[in-house]
Structures are given as structure tokens and as C-alpha cells.
Amino acid sequence: MRVIDLFNKDMFPDFRLLAGSSGLDREISSVGVIDVPDGYKWVRGGELLLTSGFIFSHDLNSLVEFVARAAEGRAAALSIKLGRFFRDLPPRVLEMAEEMGFPILNVPLPYRWSDVIELIQRRLAKEERLLEEEREPWVEMLTRGDFLDAKRLLSSLSSEIQREIWALIPVLGLTHSFQPDGSILPLEEDSLRRARSHPSREALDLRGPITSELIEVEGGRVVARYVLSQQGLAELRLVLLPGESSPSRYQEQVMRRASQLLRMAVLESAYSSSREEERKERFLENLCLGFYADQSLVEEEARSLGIEVPSPSFVVLFAPQEAETALGFVPPYELSYRLGSSWVAILPAELRRGGELERMSELAQRRRMWVLLGSVSSNALEIQRSYQEVKRALELVSRFKAPAGVYSTSELALYSLLSAIPRLPESHALWERYWKPLVEMSKRRHALRVSQLVAALIKHDFNAKAAAEELHVHYNTVRNHLEDMALNLGLDLKLPEHKLALTLAYYVDQVTSRGVPPWRSG
Fold first, then answer.
1. Cβ neighbours of residue 163 closer than 8 Å, sequence gap 6 or more
2. Cis peptide leading into 312, omega within 30 of 0?
């Protein structure tokens, strides 16, 4: 069922679309009423969200963040009753919905939410029954649990659909390739390493606990990837035949059924191995996500787990540059939990001083990872802010491909600022004024490339002698270039603002011409 189906005659033909028309094909898998402004935190994908608008009536602009976050969480749509608590939505809300293709619907006031929910649930149940009737007997055997052995299940599945299947589930002892002829081949470490680096090509289904996407492997072959769990490596891969671009409907059904069974096995394995550890990790994760609204509740839950949340504290994110460097790594801190291939830790503020950062730096170099430090939180409820900072820091170091090391969010703020400069409209005018004439000048002089000269000058704070030594040229050569630069550009490099202008022009040229920030150029 998709959002556009809501407007059918047998559904709600008097609903009105306010914004987000490009998202009318979003699939609806459930329906629910939201009663808090940050209800997007509990969105898992496919929800039709219903609200009278009361929770936003005191601050309509909070709807902007709600719409953005709900769309990012892949909710299906937002249905709201206009005219009860406010007449219209702010223009920015409608603009955001249009930009993100997130439908916002106006529900007439007479509708009761119970009637809306009941009708949608009946429609969803009917669609599920039709799918059940279409399932082949082999899929029914899977749902009855006839295959209790994971290897037997996957081997039978491969034979049934006549496609190779990869199982990458180390927690179940599965790192194998299952062949259509019934043979089972172990995957070598080199194959596993390549498998983790395959780029995503197209999302199939990002809703719910099992996500799927299409990836492209060597030789242009397409593979359907089914991720069973975000906690560690646990996935199935269906290798399509040459020329196939996506699984058939039947292949998709049986792969998802097998994924559900194996996911339960993964969860049971994790549950039996350490129930208390899992509970502690979920507590720490919820703390970082800001799910607690009362300090006393945090303290009570911590006591029940036998732990103490430090105050003041800060969040540290240990993120590998490559997935294989995370194998076997566990941070040496009690208050930590796994986040995919990364780890999150909550540490006392005093560890930001002294030798602990040196040990983190050594660990980062040895393990080839980024260690990202959030700012200090004065109490447990502020930990969410420190966590959000390290998440943003991860986006920056990933974008810039920063070398392994320890980074604080305050240091990375400079990188964020620099990354925005080349996108400003003024950056082109800066380049035309301070760099383009140098390019023309460089064509007449062949002793030095202008980019080499300026890079050396910037490195040595515009000291001509030091720059000449670095470039292994005579001082007079550099001085002659500087005289030409002053003449052509009207520059006076004794003035700080002219030095800054030339530095920024060099930076813009490097980024726009090579796509690489100059601090990575060595």
C-alpha cells in the first residue's frame, strides 16, 4: 500500500495533499498517532504518522525539524488536521516536505483517528493475506521452521532458486558461498575484504530490521545484499546472473524469509551470550540518543545495571577507516557499545587531559582508525549533544579522508568551514581577482609553477627565502616572481588581508580544480 492509495474512493478521497507530491509512491507498512514533538526518534520506516497538531501548536517551526527527521527515517507520510489548533502550515515546512519528497496530508476534522487506523490496518492485512496465498510451498516450509540447520537452509535455498548465495554471519560460524549444485565453499579472507568494499548501487528496502540493497561487484555483476543486523557483520548476498539487474519477486520473498530466520538465530546467539551486556549497551545507546528526559531515571537505571555514569563526561567514537581494521577491536572502557563497525564510549572528563589522549593517538595509528572526541557534558542529559558532535565529526573526517588520529569536534569545525568556502558564489569572484592573473603570468615564466610557489609561500608564512630553500631555487627567482605578482595583482604581501586573499584563492583553486582539499596534497 502506497500513500497515493489513501486517496482512492474506498479509502479517504477527501484527504488533501499539502506538499511532497514526489513522495506519493512511498510505501505504507504501519500507522500510528504521534504525541510528542520528537516522535521521529521512534520511526523505523513505512509509518503513516497521524497528529491533530496540538503538540506543535506552541511552536509551528518545530515542524520543520520533525518533517526533515521523519523523512530521513523513511516514514511514509504525515497526516495532520488543519483548522483545530492552527489554520495553515509555515511555508518552510511545506518547502522542506517538497524538497525531501515527504507527503503532508490534510485530514478533515470530522475523522476519528480510530476510524482511519482501522481502515488502513484492514487494507494492510488484506494485502498480507494476498501475499501469503501467492507464496510457494518452499517458502511455507521456511516459515514452519522445517530447516533448523543454517547451512542446510541456505544450501537448499541456493538449489531452489538456482543462484549462488553468500553468507557473511561470523557469529553463527557462517562465512561461506552456497552453490546451486549443493556444494558449500568457505570464503577466503581476501574475498571477505573485497565484499566489504563493494559500492551500493540502489536501495531495495531500507525499512524495518532487515534492510536490502543492490551492489555492484567485479565484472559488473549485480548482487542483492540483505543486512540482518546493524550490530557487527551479519548479512546474506544473492549473486545474480550476468545481465540480471534485480531479484525476481519470488527470489526476494524467499531471501527475506531466510534472512528473518537467520536474524532470529543471530539475536538468540547474542542474547544467550550476554543478556546483561546487551542491556547495558542499549542503556548507553539510549543515553546517547537522548531518550531520557529525567536525570533521576538515568541514575536509577544505571544503579540497576551496576554502573555509574560519570559527570562531567564526554563521548568518544572509535571509527575504523576500513571495515577490516575493526575486526577483534574492543575499546578498553567499561561504558562502551558497538555501533556497526565502530564503538561509542562515555568517559570521565578528566581523561581528556594527561596521557590518555596519547594512548588514544597510538591506538588510532596502530588500528588505522579515527578517534573522535565530543565536548564535555555537565550531566547525563547533555551526553546526547556530545554524541551528536562525534557523529558530525565522523561525516567530516570521512569526507576529507583525514589520516588516522585523534580529532576533537572543535578542531573539525575549521574543516567544516573550509569545506563550505568553495561552494559560496563569492569564491569564483575571489578566484578571478587573485588567481586567474597568476595563471596567465605562469605561462610567461617557466621556472616555477604558480601553485608550487604560492604553496611554499603559504607554508612559510610568505617568507621568500624559506620558500626558495624549499623549492631549491635561487632567492632572486622567488623575489622576481613576487614582484610580478605585486604588479599584476596590485598586491602588497606585507598586508595581512592580501596574504589571506591569496591563501583563500589558492585554496579555492585547489579544491575546484582537483576536488581535493590542499591539506591532503602533502
1. 180, 238, 239, 240, 241, 251
2. yes
Q: Which of 108, 132, 156 is the last residue of a domain?
A: 132
Side-chain half-sphere CA neighbours of 369 within 13 A: 25
d(CA 470, CA 475): 11
CATH of the domain at 123: 3.40.1390.20
State the Cα–Cα distance between residues 208 and 46, nearest whole angstrom.
8
Question: How far is it between the farthest Cα atoms of the chain?
Answer: 86
Mean pLDDT over 190-217 rounds to 68
Same domain, yes or no, for 257 and 316?
A: no
Beta strands in 228-356 (DSSP E): 235-239, 313-320, 336-339, 342-348
59 and 188 assigned to the same domain: no
Number of H helices, E strands in the chain: 18, 17
Expressed as residue numbers, the domain containing 176 is 139-272
Q: How many residues appear in the chain?
A: 522
C-alpha cell at 44: 523505523
Domain count, the chain: 4
Across 355-445, the runs of DSSP E, i.e. the strands, are 369-373, 405-408
Q: Give the CATH number, domain containing residue 168.
A: 3.30.450
Helix (H) or strand (E) holding 310: none
**What distance in Å separates the CA atoms of residue 300 and residue 277, rounded to the nearest whole number?**
17
Q: Are residues 431 and 328 in the same domain?
A: no
Instruction: Please tell me the pTM assigned to this model.
Output: 0.41
Q: pLDDT (tens digit, 9 = 90+) per residue, 444-497?
A: 655 678 888 888 888 888 898 998 998 888 888 888 888 888 888 888 888 888
Residue 319: helix, strand or coil by DSSP?
A: strand
Q: Are residues 264 and 153 part of one domain?
A: yes
